[in-house]
């Protein structure tokens, strides 16, 4: 009986830890109660928000609209037809899986030009960053930051690797997942 109890406690801890992990991510409803609509100022909506890997964008909209993820150049010019992904279901959830700036437009002609476009800058999970701002992407993939910022025309290298001499910076999600695995190994070995 004692052996069963001693194995049950770590299992209970494992279950609790593994159910806490998804709570760390945030869901952001684009446009809040106004949703994904013509005439919104989404740069104001993103102002003050910090988006991280693991968060999700939730787009709520009526028929006759789409949510298209596009490249910086297509975002700047409101060019449709070259989307990376597209959805028109009326309730689109986009998981932010990678750090960097992500660009979204409505693919219906004229809608992007009428305000249905949003860019979000996504930080690596667990990193401390300033809130997202809607800079102006240029055709070469760089982003010019808004006035008052000290970063202009930053273009991350596609093959850049973090400098490990600066220490390890892992996300809370990775830390908890690692803890779950460690507890699981201890319990069942």
From TrEMBL:
GO cellular component: plasma membrane
One term of GO molecular function: electron transfer activity
PROSITE patterns attached to this UniProt entry: COPPER_BLUE, PHYTOCYANIN
Region (Disordered): 127-162
Keywords: Copper, Electron transport, Glycoprotein, Membrane, Metal-binding, Signal, Transmembrane, Transmembrane helix, Transport
Leader sequence segment: 1-25
SUPFAM superfamilies recorded: Cupredoxins (SSF49503)
Record's protein name: Blue copper protein-like
Taxonomic classification: Eukaryota, Viridiplantae, Streptophyta, Embryophyta, Tracheophyta
